[in-house]
Amino acid sequence: MTTAPHASPTAVRALPQARAQDKFAFDKTTFGGITLLTLQGTLDQAFEGRKIAESIHTKKLVVSMRNVRRFASWGMSEWMDFLRINATRELYLVECSTYSMSQINLVTGLLGHAKLVSFYASYRCGSCSEEHETLFIIPRDRETIRELPGSQHECPTCGGRARLEDYPAAFFEAIADRSSFDIEDEVLAFCRSHLQYALAPDLTRFRALRRVHKGYTYIRMSGSLVTLPRDLMVAASDGTTVADLEGIVFDPAHAQLTEWRTYLRTVLPKLKSLQLLHCPLGFLEHAVTPEDLRDKIKVRTFALPYDCLRCETTTAHMVDVAENLEQLVVGTAPSARCATCGSSLVAIPSPDQIAFMRCLPARDRDAALDKFLATVRGEPPAKLENCLVAFPPQRMPEAPVAARRIMYVAAGLAMLILGALVAVALGLWKQRREPSSVAANQGAVAPRPPQPTFERPAWIMSDVPSSAYCHDMINRLMCIGVSSYRPTRDEAVAEASDAALEELVSAVGLKISDPAFRETVIAGYAGARAKALSALQTAELDQASAAYAAADDVVTKARKRVVEVLHASGGAAVPSQRSDWYWEEYAAKKGGTEVLVFVRYDVTLDAVKALVEKYSAATPVNGSTAMTAFPALAWQSTDFTGGALLTKVGHPFADAGIAAQSVIMAVGEQRVGDAIGFARRIEAWKQQAEGDLALKVKTGDAPARTVEIRRARIR
After folding, report:
1. Domain stop point among 164, 199, 234
2. Residues near 2 by Cβ (< 8 Å), separated by ≥ 6?
3. Which helix (DSSP H) or strand (DSSP E) does residue 65 occupy?
4. DSSP at 597
5. Looking at the chain, which terminus has fewer C-beta neighbours within 10 angstroms, N or C?
């Protein structure tokens, strides 16, 4: 995605006044192949996500969340169903309100596979206290978003300085670090025309559109082949496939064709034939081998360079292989004339081009395919099928009309016979019952007992599996973890507990205001954490997939490592017991049951303050300065066990090659829990009579190593 020139983010808008009732409502409008779904109010029990998703019939869906006030617990569950049903659609979220963004930041998984295009951030003026919102468009403002924490702009009301509300810095970093995405052309045009977004199309983005007709598949490719999604393209190719390469951006000097070659190797066994149409200059020599031409690949047209001696210009002309095969197989380029002056053009093919021309195979004449191509090549993109989305399962062919009529007649006769048998049975039953004088009211059916219901505790605000969130209360910090669906309650409790305590660690990190901590420590783990959680929420739509199992394993193990380091270093401030918990049991799809567990930890404000001080305090150690290694660094490395982080390295550690930001994890055979423990172990070693100092040191992503320092160097 390239961006149009712009001076600043979209103009500041005044914050809308809260309504008396945040009643949920929605509006659905179709613009060509796009459905615009506008949500407003609170997503609660009135939000029927599944029903709304099933009512959408276009392949592209844009959801506007400008007036969304809140996600209630029930609404979150329906929202996840909404995402699952729309898994095969291109889903874009636009105009996300500050309320919805706070929920997305709070609860893992609320984005799913959706592409977050734009959101509002709130600014408050220090002079007039007026609150305003500014719209940020992620494809355009990605780098600006990283610098948002602490930013300010002129208040449109009084001209004072309006500062950004207190958002966590990692929140904006997570948004900016999300994988870049492309906006489909029709959606991009919609954003430009209806939302007035200053975005321009990326001509190098790979696109593929197709039309299938009676065993023929036409695929129109454009953009760069570097990002060709081979699995989707293999699924889109069938029968006799014609690849139209006219829109391909191809530079022979910088050709990267790994994905293209993999596509050919994978797709050829399933095809009857693959025919290449409008190959750009240099494409055949670099993207196709002579061996390919002996298999199922046929070339319909390709470009050759021609020189006009009169105009002194070089132009590319498309050569039809079928019409000029006799000349091509002897290495001769067909004649052509200049479109400007009408003189004959001169073609001087390179040796590689001549070699390929001689290898070009003949193809059987197929009048039906030629007619199909003549029609489909003129079709606009909106009339073709996008190959870059998953294809829905094909419907089974319906039975012929005559067969259906016979089936209906047979079914009708069967019903008549069954009705007669029922009537006879009822008659016999009445005859047996008549002698007994039973009161008429004794046959009344007792009312069915009410269906069992359960009510979740009020502290549960989200049931997104494998997620966690913390809330700042008046007198405590409340952290809640949600397990994934597990086969046993013990497994689910352990997972939910780890999720809640890991979220506590993240919340503590965001409360440390030291700039050095934010620039080094948070930067050290935020990327790895965001990537792992993003991979989990993306794969969550198919929990039976290998991708979900792998992502779940990464997150589960990382959370466990973080919690282990927290217990080893946090001291008495770490909560030792959960404050409350709740569990639900469901029938599993493969039989048996599975359990979903919610765990809550209440952490006093004094304990939170103690943890903030614990992980931000500096401790002098033999000429260097250390602070307790932050537990969240365990996201970065699987062998991280905590210790003391050296923020300033002096003699003799520097002489031994230990750099700043290295973590001392052990002194000799003794594990280091925190900075004070490290200082004590160094002092205890000094009291020993002999022996050198052995330190287990970890620097960045590199494996931990042992560094030995001679006793003579330490005073």
Report:
1. 199
2. 200, 201, 202
3. strand 60-71
4. E
5. C
28 is a domain residue: yes
Residues 173 and 250 in one domain: no
Q: How many helices (H) and strands (E) does the chain have?
A: 20, 31
Eight-state DSSP code of residue 389? S
3-state SS class at 261: helix
Q: List Cβ neighbours of 215 (8 Å cut-off, separation of 6 or more).
A: 239, 240, 272
Query: Taking a C-beta distance cutoff of 8 angstroms, is the pair 119, 143 a contact?
Result: no
pTM of the model: 0.51
Question: Which structure tokens are listed for 598?
Answer: 């919610």
Within a domain: 397: no
Residue 144: phi and psi, rounded to 5, are -65, -35
CA separation for the pair 660, 510 (Å, rounded) = 22
- 214 and 145 share one domain: no
CATH number at residue 677: 2.30.42.10
Cis (ω within 30 of 0) for the bond into 229? no
- Strands of 593-604's sheet, edge to edge? 467-472, 476-482, 593-604, 580-587
Same domain flag for 649 and 513: no
Tell me the two tokens of residue 292.
Answer: 């390919």
Long-range contacts, 150-153 (Cβ 8 Å, 24+): 152/123, 153/12, 153/123
Q: Which of 691, 696, 629, 698 is nearest to 659 (CA)?
A: 698
* Co-location of 324 and 269 in the same domain: yes
Structural domain includes residue 382: yes
The candidate with the shortest Cα–Cα distance to 524, out of 566, 551, 562, is 562
Alpha helices of 211-268 — where are they, by DSSP H? 230-236, 258-267
Which pLDDT value is given to residue 63? 96
The end-to-end CA distance of the chain, in Å, is 59
Task: Decide if 511 contacts 526 (C-beta within 8 A).
Answer: no
Is 451 inside any structural domain? no
Question: Is the Cβ–Cβ distance between 146 and 518 less than 8 Å?
Answer: no
Question: Alpha-carbon torsion 377, 381, 382, 387, what sign?
Answer: positive
Q: What is the 3-state secondary structure (H, E, C) of 115-172?
A: EECEEEEEEEECCCCCEEEEEEEHHHHHHHHHCCCCCEEECCCCCCEEEECCCCHHHH
Q: Are 481 and 501 in contact (CB under 8 A)?
A: yes
Q: What is the pLDDT of residue 489?
A: 93
pLDDT means per 10 residues, the chain with 715 residues, are: 42 46 85 91 89 92 91 81 88 90 74 88 84 87 80 84 69 71 83 87 81 94 88 93 91 83 92 93 88 88 90 88 89 88 86 87 89 90 78 42 45 55 52 41 41 70 84 85 92 95 92 85 85 79 82 94 94 92 86 92 93 93 92 92 92 88 91 92 82 89 89 69
Q: Which residues on neighbouring strands pair with residue 303, listed in sequence order?
A: 318
Distance CA 535, CA 531 (A): 6
Q: Which two tokens stand for residue 147?
A: 């610098």
- Cα separation, 72 vs 444, in Å, equals 43
Instruction: Please answer whether residues 73 and 61 qualify as being in contact, where contact means their C-beta atoms are separated by less than 8 angstroms.
Output: no
**Domain check: are 44 and 161 in the same one?**
yes
Specify whether 294 is located in the same domain as 355: yes
Nearest to 644 by CA among 576, 569, 580, 587: 569
Distance CA 500, CA 687 (A): 42
The Cα–Cα gap between 529 and 532 comes to: 5
Interior/surface letters 306-334, b for 16+ CB within 10 angstroms, e for the rest: bebeeeeeebebebebeebbeebeeeebb
Query: Domains in the chain: how many in total?
Result: 4
- Return the residue matching tokens 């055979």: 669
593 and 676 both lie in a single domain: no
Q: 24: domain CATH number?
A: 3.30.750.24
Q: Residue 705: which domain range?
A: 617-713
